[in-house]
């Protein structure tokens, strides 16, 4: 059977590491509070030359090299992002320019932290129509540019980075088995970001000319656990798969307590759940493709393994995807 398969992965993180100890000097917080409430120890911060499109292009080059696909062979570039370099053109068009992927059409997809899962599902639909298509699917963010560095409720949580994968049609049992996507715009106030794209490599405090990310953390937490568990339950039921059959789960990396609650709900041992939120914090649409690339390069994925991806983010948006590697 012909299915959409991931044939290459890549990621790129900014050079600068910002630790919890560094944050202790910026806002009233402590390494102990951040670690116990979120699991985050460090995050990466983009500097000049590490704009969202450049991180995305870096991740894409690695994914293309692994896939053995030249940029000119790409048909479509999809970038999940809420922090494009500018409002127009899209981040995807800037990536297309960087890669010299002349044949590809390109577009961004805004589904906040679920951006990569949404983009992967869209890519699957194109490839199902034309299995020869080669699609670059990216999640890339520089949320440090849109955080109020005086707001301890949010600034400790987010980081910057990009992850990418190349997908195309492949004959066999493996590939993208199913995806379930959801949204509920009624709850938009609980997690939102107004205003136009911006850049803030100096981590200046919010001057209130540029709106910053707003979040009601406790409410978001509650919805995130419930919604992801529901999406996972649905996608597994669609495919007749039991949680115990999953070789690896890569959840959106926002908070270790959300991840543990999800693992508890699925009765999955944490050894089967990929965690790197400690290193990178919440990189929104980039968390899943960065983790996927790390897991792949670290040998955590073998042909035939069942892989589950799930996410939750602003919108609200959420979803789950099941892949046979
Ligand atoms: C943000 C989050 C870590 C806060 O944890 P929490 O246990 O809910 O904590 P609360 O918001 O109830 O705050 C508890 C106290 O810690 C304080 N606090 C908040 N941030 C702090 C920080 N960085 N350092 C120290 N104290 C902090 C609060 O002011 C509050 O103090 P108060 O009780 O005196 O008012 C948690 O709610 C969360 O992770 N939510 C989901 C966030 C998320 O994943 N968002 C993205 C989804 S895509």
UniProtKB/TrEMBL annotation:
<feature type="active site">
    <location>
        <position position="113"/>
    </location>
</feature>
<dbReference type="InterPro" id="IPR013751">
    <property type="entry name" value="ACP_syn_III_N"/>
</dbReference>
<dbReference type="InterPro" id="IPR013747">
    <property type="entry name" value="ACP_syn_III_C"/>
</dbReference>
<keyword id="KW-0275">Fatty acid biosynthesis</keyword>
<keyword id="KW-0511">Multifunctional enzyme</keyword>
<dbReference type="InterPro" id="IPR016039">
    <property type="entry name" value="Thiolase-like"/>
</dbReference>
<dbReference type="GO" id="GO:0005737">
    <property type="term" value="C:cytoplasm"/>
</dbReference>
<feature type="active site">
    <location>
        <position position="252"/>
    </location>
</feature>
<feature type="region of interest" description="ACP-binding">
    <location>
        <begin position="253"/>
        <end position="257"/>
    </location>
</feature>
<keyword id="KW-0444">Lipid biosynthesis</keyword>
<keyword id="KW-0443">Lipid metabolism</keyword>
<feature type="domain" description="Beta-ketoacyl-[acyl-carrier-protein] synthase III C-terminal">
    <location>
        <begin position="236"/>
        <end position="325"/>
    </location>
</feature>
<keyword id="KW-0808">Transferase</keyword>
<comment type="subunit">
    <text>Homodimer.</text>
</comment>
<dbReference type="Pfam" id="PF08541">
    <property type="entry name" value="ACP_syn_III_C"/>
</dbReference>
<feature type="domain" description="Beta-ketoacyl-[acyl-carrier-protein] synthase III N-terminal">
    <location>
        <begin position="107"/>
        <end position="185"/>
    </location>
</feature>
<comment type="pathway">
    <text>Lipid metabolism; fatty acid biosynthesis.</text>
</comment>
<dbReference type="InterPro" id="IPR004655">
    <property type="entry name" value="FabH"/>
</dbReference>
<dbReference type="GO" id="GO:0004315">
    <property type="term" value="F:3-oxoacyl-[acyl-carrier-protein] synthase activity"/>
</dbReference>
<dbReference type="GO" id="GO:0033818">
    <property type="term" value="F:beta-ketoacyl-acyl-carrier-protein synthase III activity"/>
</dbReference>
<protein>
    <recommendedName>
        <fullName>Beta-ketoacyl-[acyl-carrier-protein] synthase III</fullName>
        <ecNumber>2.3.1.180</ecNumber>
    </recommendedName>
</protein>
<comment type="similarity">
    <text>Belongs to the thiolase-like superfamily. FabH family.</text>
</comment>
<keyword id="KW-0276">Fatty acid metabolism</keyword>
<comment type="function">
    <text>Catalyzes the condensation reaction of fatty acid synthesis by the addition to an acyl acceptor of two carbons from malonyl-ACP. Catalyzes the first condensation reaction which initiates fatty acid synthesis and may therefore play a role in governing the total rate of fatty acid production. Possesses both acetoacetyl-ACP synthase and acetyl transacylase activities. Its substrate specificity determines the biosynthesis of branched-chain and/or straight-chain of fatty acids.</text>
</comment>
<dbReference type="GO" id="GO:0006633">
    <property type="term" value="P:fatty acid biosynthetic process"/>
</dbReference>
<feature type="active site">
    <location>
        <position position="282"/>
    </location>
</feature>
<dbReference type="Pfam" id="PF08545">
    <property type="entry name" value="ACP_syn_III"/>
</dbReference>
<keyword id="KW-0012">Acyltransferase</keyword>
<keyword id="KW-0963">Cytoplasm</keyword>
């Amino acid at each position: 059977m012909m299915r959409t398969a991931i044939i290459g992965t890549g990621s790129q993180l900014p050079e600068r590491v910002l630790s919890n100890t560094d944050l202790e000097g910026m806002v009233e917080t402590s390494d102990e509070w951040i670690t116990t409430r979120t699991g985050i120890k460090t995050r990466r911060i983009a500097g000049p030359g590490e704009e969202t499109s450049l991180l995305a292009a870096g991740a894409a080059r690695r994914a293309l090299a692994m896939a053995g696909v030249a940029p000119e062979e790409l048909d479509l570039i999809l970038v999940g992002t809420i922090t494009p370099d500018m409002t127009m053109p899209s981040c995807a068009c800037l990536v297309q320019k960087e890669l010299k992927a002349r044949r590809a059409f390109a577009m961004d997809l805004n589904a906040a932290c679920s951006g990569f899962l949404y983009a992967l599902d869209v890519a699957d639909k194109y490839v199902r129509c034309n299995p020869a298509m080669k699609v670059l699917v990216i999640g890339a963010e520089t949320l440090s540019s849109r955080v109020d560095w005086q707001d301890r409720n949010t600034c400790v949580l987010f980081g910057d980075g990009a992850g990418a994968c190349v997908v195309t049609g492949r004959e066999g049992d493996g590939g993208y088995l199913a995806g379930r996507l959801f949204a509920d715009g009624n709850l938009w106030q609980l997690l939102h970001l107004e205003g136009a794209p911006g850049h803030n490599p100096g981590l200046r405090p919010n001057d209130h000319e540029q709106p910053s990310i707003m979040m009601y953390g406790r409410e978001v937490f509650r919805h995130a656990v419930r919604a992801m568990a529901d999406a996972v339950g649905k996608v597994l039921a669609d495919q007749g798969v039991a949680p115990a059959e999953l070789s690896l789960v890569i959840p959106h990396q926002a908070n270790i307590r959300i991840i543990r609650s999800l693992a508890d709900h699925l009765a999955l041992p944490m050894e089967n759940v990929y965690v790197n939120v400690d290193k990178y914090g919440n990189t929104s649409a980039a968390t899943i493709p960065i983790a996927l690339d790390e897991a792949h390069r670290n040998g955590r994925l073998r042909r035939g393994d069942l892989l589950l991806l799930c996410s939750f983010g602003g919108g609200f948006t959420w979803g789950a995807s099941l892949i046979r590697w």
